[in-house]
UniProtKB/TrEMBL annotation:
Pfam families: FGGY_C, FGGY_N. It comes from Natronosalvus rutilus. Residues 5-262 form the Carbohydrate kinase FGGY N-terminal domain. One of its GO terms (molecular function) is ATP binding. One of its GO terms (cellular component) is cytosol. Key enzyme in the regulation of glycerol uptake and metabolism. Catalyzes the phosphorylation of glycerol to yield sn-glycerol 3-phosphate. ADP binds at T13, R17, T277, G321, G421, N425. Belongs to the FGGY kinase family. The gene is glpK. Keywords: ATP-binding, Glycerol metabolism, Kinase, Nucleotide-binding, Transferase. InterPro entries: ATPase_NBD, Carb_kinase_FGGY, Carb_kinase_FGGY_CS, FGGY_C, FGGY_N, Glycerol_kin. This is Glycerol kinase. It is an enzyme of class 2 (transferase).
Length: 512
């Protein structure tokens, strides 16, 4: 009998990965390609959707080819994606009308401030569980409808973009929708990605008419919303297409919810933190949408076919791994692997604190105009102190969110499951355990984002029977327990709070 597998497209902020998993949840194939980061103006971040689609096809064929796996050995494909990143495309040609606006993009900050002045913040929070912020998709879609270059649209006059959108001839999507559309031909998203658009009512589980009107987004341009793990599937790949096989696309989750699923946080109170470009801390709250009083987001965690939605509390930290990339950009390090050695080479940061608010601050501060700040430097400050302060900033930001999470949920966190590229750094994991004062569990398979979407697709088609079997797959690579004196950790954290205060509200209209 031929072995069969489940594949996962993991489309992230800096690149696209395709991974193939077997029944035990082990990786049997893996390919990755970066894509270009486009910065047209300060604070603007774009991606080329066609480059992302071409890279997706490339990594799928590369991974399968390198592992000697035939496409028809895939029982299903799952998709996971950078959330909130938004694009519009021409339904007739399938071509984007503009580059995608990335979740990091801040060009609509003034529009969000207008929403605040108009008293829309509470309405948005009540309906969507989100803070009014340029981070989410709604203001990005509005900007694209107003500013997309009509030259890129076939047979379209400049005044026609919004008119054609109202006719369903211009389609809206986040990256999951774009990939599902190109894989299957169907215009579909799923509940976790819909919940990040600032257009979707997470209680009624439908697109919200009041919000659609506010942002001038036509219902006709929106995708159908389906469960994250869908027994009806989203469609199949084209047997005449690049894979030359008919494979069900049966599961999708926004990247952070995919990591929650991949870390098998299926029950209320279970939590994970993913350390990528940013860090995203999610706690499953079960069938209850817990309203945050401490600056967290209420979001949809996942939904399986025929089952109720599982909600989550989320703390979104915009810049963590990207702070390490900044150290590279500034030639303070040559490689991220150096950071642990450099940090260990000094006893402390010597009073230096780094607040990496390059794109504002997310949870629990939500200050769009905060900016990156280094405080406490003296003539004796060396790069080792700045590197150590950078790693500490990741741990401090996570504690900011952990404390808010415990206050909202009433659950004292004993163990935090971690994943993402930065958790390969043992120094950071130990520091994180020390600063938040709880155990840190790192799994053997740390690509839990891809694994989560594979699990969602595999469950939908019966490749895996139930979630309990998935729990059995989850294995600890290493656990970290607090070693630092709690009073010392509290003192360090208190000074971090002082540093954050210095970063708030820095950018002005003239200084953005």
């Amino acid at each position: 009998m031929t072995d069969t597998y489940v594949g996962a497209v993991d489309q992230g902020t800096t690149g696209t990965r395709f991974m193939v998993f077997d029944h035990s949840g082990q990786v049997v194939a893996n390919a990755y390609e970066k894509h270009e980061q486009i910065y047209p103006e300060p604070g603007w971040v774009e991606h080329d959707p066609m480059e992302i689609w071409e890279n997706t096809k490339s990594v799928i064929t590369s991974a399968l080819g390198q592992a000697g796996i035939s496409p028809d050995q895939l029982e299903a494909i799952g998709v996971t994606n950078q959330r909130e990143t938004t694009l519009l495309w021409d339904a007739e040609s399938g071509k984007p009308v503009h580059n995608a606006l990335v979740w990091q993009d801040r060009r609509t900050t003034s529009r969000v401030e207008q929403l605040e002045e108009d008293g829309m913040v509470d309405t948005i929070r009540e309906k969507t569980g989100l803070e009014a912020d340029a981070y989410f998709s709604a203001t990005k879609a509005e900007w694209l409808l107003e500013n997309a270059d009509p030259i890129k649209m076939e047979r379209t006059r400049p005044s026609d973009i919004q008119d054609r959108a109202a006719e369903g001839e211009v389609l809206f999507g986040t990256i999951d929708t774009w990939l599902i559309y190109n894989l299957t031909g169907n215009h579909i998203t799923e509940v976790t990605n819909a919940s990040r658009t600032m257009l979707y009512n997470i209680h009624d589980l439908e697109w919200d008419d009041e919000l659609l009107e506010e942002f001038d987004v036509s219902r006709e341009m929106l995708p159908e919303v389906r469960p994250s793990s869908d027994e009806d599937t989203y469609g199949t790949t084209d047997p005449d297409g690049f894979l030359e096989a008919e494979i069900p696309v049966a599961g999708a989750l926004g990247d952070q919810q995919a990591a929650l699923f991949g870390q098998t946080c299926f029950d209320a109170g279970e939590a994970k933190n993913t350390y990528g470009t940013g860090s995203f801390f999610l706690m499953n709250t079960g069938e209850e949408a817990v309203e945050s009083e401490h600056g967290l987001l209420t979001t949809i965690g996942f939904q399986r076919s025929g089952e109720p939605v599982q909600y989550a509390l989320e703390g979104a930290i915009f810049i963590t791994g990207a702070a390490i990339e900044w150290l590279e950009d500034m030639t303070l390090i040559d490689d991220p692997a150096e950071t642990a050695e450099l940090a260990r080479s000094v006893d402390s940061t010597d009073g230096v604190y780094f607040v990496p608010a390059f794109t504002g601050l997310g949870a629990p501060h939500w200050d769009q105009r905060a900016r990156g700040t280094i405080v406490g430097m003296t003539r004796g400050t060396r790069k080792e102190h700045v590197v150590r302060a950078t790693l500490e900033s990741i741990a401090y930001q996570t504690r900011d969110v952990a404390e808010a999470m415990e206050a909202d949920s009433g659950i004292e966190m004993q163990d935090l499951k971690v994943d993402g590229g930065a958790v390969k750094n043992n120094y950071l994991c130990q520091l994180q355990s020390d600063i938040i004062g709880s155990e840190i569990s790192r799994p053997v398979v740390d690509e839990t984002t891809a694994l989560g979407s594979a699990y969602a697709a595999g469950l939908a088609v019966g490749y895996w029977g139930d979630v309990e079997g998935l729990r059995d797959n989850w294995q600890v690579d290493r656990e970290f327990t607090p070693e630092m004196d709690p009073e010392k950790a509290d003192r360090m954290y208190s000074r971090w709070s002082d540093a954050v205060e210095r970063s708030l509200g820095w950018a002005t209209d003239g200084g953005d």
